Amino acid sequence: MSRFQFRPATFKMVFFMYLLGTVIFAILYLLPVSHKQPLLPVDAFFLSASAISATGLSTVTVAQELTTAGKIILLIQMEIGGIGVMALVGALLIALRTNAPVPSQTLMIFDQNQNSSRSISKLMAFIVKYTLIVETAGFLLILPSALQHGSHAFAAFFLSVSTFTNAGFEISGNGLDNFKGEPFVLAVLSCMIILGVLGFAVVMEFLQSRRKKKSLYFKVNVLMHGILLLAGFLFFFFVDFIHMPGLSFTEKIIQSLFFSAAPRSGGLASLDLHVFSFPSLLFMIMLMFIGGSPSSCAGGIRTTTFAVILAKLWSVIRGSNETHMFRKTLFAEDVNKAFLVFFAFLFLFFFSFFVLSFTEKAAPFPLAFEIMSALSTCGFSLGITAGLTVFGKIWLAFLMLIGRLGVIILIYTFMNQKKSTIKYAKESILIG
């Protein structure tokens, strides 16, 4: 894959496009037609940031406080956030049979975490088609059960969109309580979450290049997703569900599968998170931290970042100066970028935890859980969202936007890269 260099203006443009979209939709939520009860501007901004970042955290009860018009606006914003602003722009240009100018192509490439200008138009078109197909299929599969429980078709479609885009919102008012005892529906929702975090480029390569040799990007993502799903399933089943009363064996299997997928960025929970043990909640934080694939609906540091860091650590242990994966040598700049994302994410998490510990009254662990959920765009909460201060709401809103775009945009938006020509003498230092 050809290397692609981004100018600082590219990062700034994408960041401010998402920020502008957040403000515009926040204004729409403040319109009388959108809400049943008065909505504070900070709550509208928080809801808008959560929707466009496909997170799912909310300081208001969406089912009760938004009108039908407000829920439709939320549905549209979830779709925009899940697919990506520039992906929609690219798909529109393709539909109009208009070639995207070079600056627009650059924004599309960055918005989808790609590093090549090759086949970007095909990817944009595929994203929209793939999204519509999966969401429609999910809607049709869960509709009979939703109607049986007294829900309506719009709520079922809303849930389908929310699940695939990993937005984590629902408008029934009781979460997924209606589907606790329905393994089929939970299995469908689990598959939709997985399809949302797997990555558009991965799915496109699988469907359109079955006979061709798979790329390193494809192999790494499929392997990491397989490992994380299996690890999550085994952990939740043997730590919590195997001892949990009131569930059949089949329900325990499905719930374990669901929660192995949902913390990666899904946001929807089929059970109250307070029923989980402390080790399971810690494991959820780890899954939120890793997240899903680049060019997907998920957040986190991304699977490729985590895989590259593991590969580099293994190469250091073996005494190798180069990093290898699937008999390929990685570019040093990609390895450096992976470590930059990893430590920038951790720094932002701990710094936010430090700052908000002064302003928020929540207990330390629920606060840390909330911060990781916002930064990784997961949407899980231990119930402290509504009690956040105005400062806390604004802080988490920006964390969600950063999490949607990737923490590296925060660095490159406000810092200019300068290559140093100065070389210094080398000297060894004691380590460990």
Automatic annotation (TrEMBL):
Spans traversing the lipid bilayer: 12-32, 72-96, 123-142, 184-204, 216-239, 273-292, 299-317, 337-356, 368-388, 394-414
GO terms assigned for molecular function: monoatomic cation transmembrane transporter activity
Protein topology in the membrane: Multi-pass membrane protein
Keyword set, alphabetical order: Cell membrane, Ion transport, Membrane, Transmembrane, Transmembrane helix, Transport
GO biological process assignments: metal ion transport
One Gene Ontology term, aspect cellular component: plasma membrane
InterPro entries attached to this UniProt entry: Cat_transpt
Superkingdom as given in the UniProt entry: Bacteria
Record localization: Cell membrane
PANTHER family registered for this protein in UniProt: KTR SYSTEM POTASSIUM UPTAKE PROTEIN D, TRK SYSTEM POTASSIUM UPTAKE PROTEIN TRKG-RELATED
Protein name: Cation transporter
Species whose genome carries this gene: Heyndrickxia coagulans
